Amino acid sequence: MSAQLGSEELDVGEALERDGFCGPLDAGASREKCTELARSICEGIENREMHPLYGRFSVRDWHLINSDFLELLTGPKVLDAVSLVLGDRYKMWRSKIFHKSPGEGPLGWHQEWGAFNGEEIGNDRPALIPAPARRDSAWNVTVWMPLTDVTPDMGPMRFARGSHKRRFPIRMGPLAETEFYVDPFTEVTSKDALIRRVKTDSLCIDIHTAHYFDDVSLDALSFEELRELVEAKLREEQGAITLDFHESEHEIVSMPMSAGQFVIFTERCMHGSSANTSAFPRIGINARFTFDDTQVYPFRHSKVPIDGSNLDISLHRTVLIPGWEDASDGASITLADLKAG
Ligand SMILES: O=C(O)CCC(=O)C(=O)O
Ligand SMILES: [Fe+2]
User: What is the pLDDT of residue 334?
Assistant: First the structure.
């Protein structure tokens, strides 16, 4: 996959061009590191741990906090693959945890076509603006890595081969019908837990719920009554629903993987994951990379530095992988500096 390995070099670039994705590839990551990180991620999710940069629970950007997280996603084999697609001047601007609980359903088919504006939860705050010369082609590439082995029954990633060549339309609809929605009440079964999660915006990932109980007299209402109230509020939230995409018309590639392997794909490729019917959590992490001259969070210096995921990104930094000067927004740190703490 590295520059010296001629044929594999071509494979990654060609596969992305032809199929929209390439994998599974070997990251050369240590299984122990993966298992250790998976364990700490599970704990953090269970406790709804507050993200130090964002001041609330979030599954985003733990690579800026946890060096194991950063190392796994920026190992030499991962970066070699990314350079084969983006060249040698790029930055990592986002990461995310994808924790799929036992029994959790599929994550629906979606494309992330370029702006990463939070449309999946009904927002429109563009996170990326590419340099003008790059606007006709994709300007983001994603690496997804499981931290546990993902067998076919654990909700592996799925890709529709070649679907990156067409942008499928979306419409906004009730959150519960959208591609990313996970019913929070499979996990939340007590009044205390419900109140805590609603008030700390940690009930549904990225959804701002802290105001739901303003003017509600919590003591007077039962769990069931509060649940109904929350469900009614959630019905008012909107999110993106993919249209015109029919699985049967595409070649679907389901990708079981071993811990520490990775798949690289363009955000334009239609993807999702199937249900986790196993008794084990499926834990994946992803990293998103863009060219060094892409503006990341163009509104970061405005009065409202809130992104499409309802996060205050004032303290966010992009990570310049090869150590170039940032060509866009000045809010970056080099990989070497970040590793040095
Ligand atoms: O982990 C999953 O199930 C989905 C991941 C995904 O959609 C992404 O990495 O863009
Ligand atoms: Fe996705």
Answer: 77
Domain ranges in the chain are: 15-168+244-339
- The pLDDT assigned to 328 comes to 58
The answer to whether residues 107 and 295 touch, using CB atoms and an 8 Å cutoff, is no
Q: Quick: pLDDT tens for 188-225.
A: 999 999 999 999 999 999 999 999 999 999 999 999 99
- Is the peptide bond between 174 and the residue preceding it cis, with omega within 30 degrees of 0? no
* Predicted confidence (pLDDT) per residue in 128-166, tens digit: 999 999 988 889 999 999 999 999 999 999 999 999 999
Say how many Å lie between the CA of residue 149 and the centre of ligand 2: 19
Is the Cβ atom of 286 under 6 angstroms away from ligand 1?
yes
Give the CATH H-level superfamily of domain 15-168+244-339. Answer: q2cbj1_9rhob like domain (2.60.120.620)
Asked if 302 contacts 268 with a C-beta cutoff of 8 angstroms, the reply is no
146 CB less than 6 Å from ligand 1? no
pLDDT tens digits along 20-37: 999 999 999 999 999 999
Tell me, rounded to whole angstroms, the distance of Cα 284 from its chain centroid. 9
Q: For residue 284, give the ligand nearest its CA.
A: 1
For ligand 1, the distance from its centroid to the CA atom of residue 24, given in whole angstroms, is 14
What was the pLDDT predicted at 301?
A: 87
Kindly state the helix (H) or strand (E) to which residue 146 belongs, with its residue range: strand 140-146
Indicate the SS3 state at residue 71.
helix
| 8 C-alpha to ligand 2 centroid (Å) | 25
Which residue's alpha carbon is nearest to atom 4 within ligand 1? 272
Q: How far is CA 141 from CA 91, 155, 234, in A?
A: 10, 22, 32
Tell me the CA–centroid distance for residue 284 and ligand 1, in Å. Answer: 8
Q: What angle do CA 14, 19, 24 make, to 5 degrees?
A: 85
98 lines ligand 1 (CB under 6 A): yes
Atom from ligand 1 closest to the CA of residue 98:
1
- For the chain, residues with pLDDT lower than 70 are 1-10, 322-330, 341
